[in-house]
Amino acid sequence: MVKKVLVMDDSKVSRLFVVNYWRETHPDWQFIEAETGEKAVSLAEQHQFHAIILDYNMPDINGLQVAELVKVKQPGCFIALLTANIQRYIQDDAEQAQLYYYRKPITPDLIVQIIQDTGGYYDAVQ
């Protein structure tokens, strides 16, 4: 079964960085992109994801709101909030929602960390 990753960010460049860096180590995975929160929620209704990467600042609904809606449809899925917004309350809210929290900029090392955390997450829940 092919593992799928949903990458939600209103920045095409950010989505490309995440997908391209991740694909370097996992070329057999499928990546689906969403440029809005509403599209991410819709895609979560249509696909089963192994990992969901959400930007916080979006043009419609923010990443935390998307995570809340998606968790109902994808219980047990690894969900990460990846954001340039460094306000402490956002990190606190992400942790309270049991999301993994990462700060931009997107780098190969950051994507490696997210991939490792994804693996560790599934090792812990099995």
The low-pLDDT segments are: none
Using the CA coordinates, give the radius of gyration.
13 Å
Strand content: 15-25%
Ends apart, CA distance between termini: 18 Å
Helical residues, percent = 40-55%
Which CATH architecture is right?
A: 3-Layer(aba) Sandwich
Helix-strand topology string? EHEHEHEHEH
Strand segment tally? 5
Globular, elongated, flat, extended or rod-shaped: what is the shape? globular
**Which superfamily, in CATH terms, is the homologous superfamily?**
Response regulator
Oligomer: single chain
Quick take:
The chain has 126 residues and is α/β, with parallel strands linked by helices. The chain has helices at 12-25, 37-46, 63-73, 88-96, 108-125; strands at 4-8, 30-34, 51-54, 78-83, 100-103.
Describe the protein's architecture and organization:
This protein is an alpha/beta fold and 126 residues long. It has one domain: Rossmann fold (3-Layer(aba) Sandwich), CATH 3.40.50.2300. It contains five helices and five strands. The chain has a five-stranded parallel sheet, sandwiched between helices. Strand 1, helix 1 and strand 2 form a beta-alpha-beta unit. Helix 2 runs parallel beside helix 3. It is globular. The model has no long low-confidence stretch (mean pLDDT 94).
Topology at a glance:
Elements: E1 4-8, H1 12-25, E2 30-34, H2 37-46, E3 51-54, H3 63-73, E4 78-83, H4 88-96, E5 100-103, H5 108-125
Parallel strand pairs: 1-2, 1-3, 3-4, 4-5
Helix pairs in contact: 1-5, 2-3
InterPro entries: Bact_response_regulator, CheY-like_superfamily, Sig_transdc_resp-reg_receiver
Protein name: CheY-like chemotaxis protein
Keywords: Phosphoprotein
